[in-house]
Amino acid sequence: MQGIIIKSIGGLYTVEASEGVYECKARGVFRKRSISPVCGDRVSFSLESDGCGVIETIGERSSLLIRPPLANLDILVFVASSCEPAPNLLLLDKFIAIAVFKHIEPVVVFTKIDKQDPSEYADIYRRAGIRAVTVDNVTGKGSEEVRELIAGKLSAFTGNTGVGKSSLMQNIFPDRDFATGEISRKLGRGRHTTRHIELFKLPEGGYVADTPGFSSFETNQYDIIFKDQLADCFTEFGEFTSGCRFADCSHTSEKGCAVIEAVEKGLIPGTRHESYKTMYEEAKLLKEWEHKK
Questions:
Q1: I need a labelling partner for 133 at 20 to 30 A (CA). Which of 5, 77, 159, 164 fits?
Q2: What are phi and psi of 252, to 5 degrees?
């Protein structure tokens, strides 16, 4: 039978197929090949006499995230708050670059619009060609727009602790109980409330995954983007790079750089370019031979 892994805990995989939902284990051959099935994997499986399933093959993956382990994502939704905590744009831009690098569409959602207007932040990403939505988790305003964006897709939600990700999920799935942690004013952050990754099916079709919150980020934990690949991960640069004076332009400080000129003219958001320059300096320290898989 064919199905999709919708839950993974301790070597047991819940697979949803047209015939029903089955608890499965994976063949030992995957471990020998250093391959682990993950949520989002399209798999074929067989049933043993006791009714337990055994995963036989894993389909080709269109994308793969190691942390959190998810395969075949169409959309990665980055949840950030307009305040408490204030958005970390460099952190957000690092994650967006990883999504683009892995051929996953990034979507940015700004919460807590009842406390502070996030229009300035949302405009940055809309100008960069990235879909951005503002939501009020108290009233639910904006959550329907998010739901329409992810309908029929395989999506994941991620966001820094305390930004209201679980509350947003609760508004999208009102019939489910998502544990929400109150923000600690002393620490300025929330408690982890999500313990495992699970895909939830949308009535409109598609699945969405809730993922453990994160409070720190190192790009190299998710993937390696070398300096000559980085500009392609800032898609708004694309229409300008061919106009640079030098073919090997780094788009950081060169005279005759069309990207820098576009930033100066307001055609590319300045914060995005600042993030790019920071990431470029970090990428310069990477040595390709040290990171070959």
A1: 5
A2: -115, -40
Residues contacting 275, CB < 8 A, separation 6+: 89, 90, 93, 94
167: left (phi over 0), alpha (psi -120 to 50) or beta: alpha
Mean pLDDT of 170-198: 57
Considering the chain, what percentage of its residues have pLDDT values greater than 70? 87
* Three-class DSSP category at 147: helix
Please give the CATH superfamily to which domain 2-59 belongs: Nucleic acid-binding proteins (2.40.50.140)
Q: Measuring CA to CA, which residue among 97, 115, 117 is closest to residue 106?
A: 97
For residue 10, the 8-state DSSP code is T
Copy the structure tokens of residue 110.
């700004």
The whole-number pLDDT of residue 185 equals: 38
Q: Which residues contact 158 (CB under 8 A, 6 or more apart)?
A: 68, 76, 77, 78, 79, 95, 165, 211, 213, 214
pLDDT tens digits for range 39-69: 999 999 999 888 889 999 999 999 988 777 8
For the domain 224-291, what is the CATH superfamily, name and number?
Probable gtpase engc; domain 3 (1.10.40.50)
pTM of the predicted protein model: 0.83
